[in-house]
Amino acid sequence: MSSSPPLSNTWLRLRKRLERNVGKAIADYNMIEEGDTVLVCVSGGKDSYTLLSMLLALQARAPVDFRLRVMNLDQKQPGFPADVLPRYLAALGVDYRIVEQDTYAVVKDKIEEGKTTCSLCSRLRRGVIYRTAKELGANKIALGHHRDDMVHTLFLNLFFAGQLKAMPPKLLTDDGCHVVIRPLAYCSESAIARFARGMNYPIIPCNLCGSQENLQRQKVREMLAAWEQRFPGRTEVIFSALQKVVPSHLADPALFDFGNLRAAREKTAEHPHEAICDLPAVRMLPSGSPAIPLAVIQP
């Protein structure tokens, strides 16, 4: 069980900033609505602990009424402290369920030694979460991914999958039964880490993925950390770019109709129905080649 958080002005400002960012993300993407039942997935890591703390704080003063239910998946990893989360969640007084499923053995059986386990582990875990959400009557599933996770995923897909795709703040599951939300979308990992240290959460490490140094995600994390050190604020700028997508300046014909992109022509007798195009006056070079439009060089 965590001890009482320090009530220094710095820590209080940090908590207020995190709550404000979570509240803004929820509002911007309409993540939680009146009557929702939200299943909060708590793994025992700093991110999911912080997610639960933020949602509990916001629930107390939210303008809409919604219910929180908490789940943890005990994947039967060797040495997993099965008593930690039940004790912590019971002390909070939240409605929770511990789901036991030996996904660890499945992953170890299917994945060769030295290979990354994340893909299979994630699929197995996702299936258990969706099933539990259905059993508990939850229509929303809250995950603890933060801003940095989303930016890392953008570069993972860019470098290794050839896709311009990240991790959305809100997502409809493939079967259409649940909406996955990421309320920490506007929160940086560094702020979450500072908050978690102050809260003294009983952190549970992940032996499946956290110890694999050859993960592509870890390489991307190291790359972005180096960028952030040289150019502070890069991660925030990159995340901001995810909210300002311009399909006409990419190359995907499914997103923008490049095929029917044509310039307007001046209305003439031959083309009486063409849109009028006011061509700028052009200064001609002695050779007769057009140069800079006069409208550009004249005040």
What does this protein structure show overall?
This protein has helices at 9-28, 46-59, 84-92, 103-110, 118-136, 147-161, 189-199, 216-230, 234-242, 294-297, and strands at 37-41, 67-74, 96-100, 140-142, 170-172, 179-181, 282-284, 290-293. With 299 residues, the protein is α/β, with parallel strands linked by helices. The protein folds into 2 domains: 9-249, HUPs (Rossmann fold, 3-Layer(aba) Sandwich); 262-299, no CATH class. The strands form 2 sheets. It has a 6-stranded mixed β-sheet, with helices on both faces. It has a two-stranded antiparallel sheet with strand order 7-8. Strand 2 (67-74), helix 3 (84-92) and strand 3 form a beta-alpha-beta unit. Helix 1 crosses helix 7 (189-199) and helix 6 packs across helix 9 (234-242). The longest helix has 20 residues, at 9-28. The model is unreliable at 289-299 (pLDDT under 50).
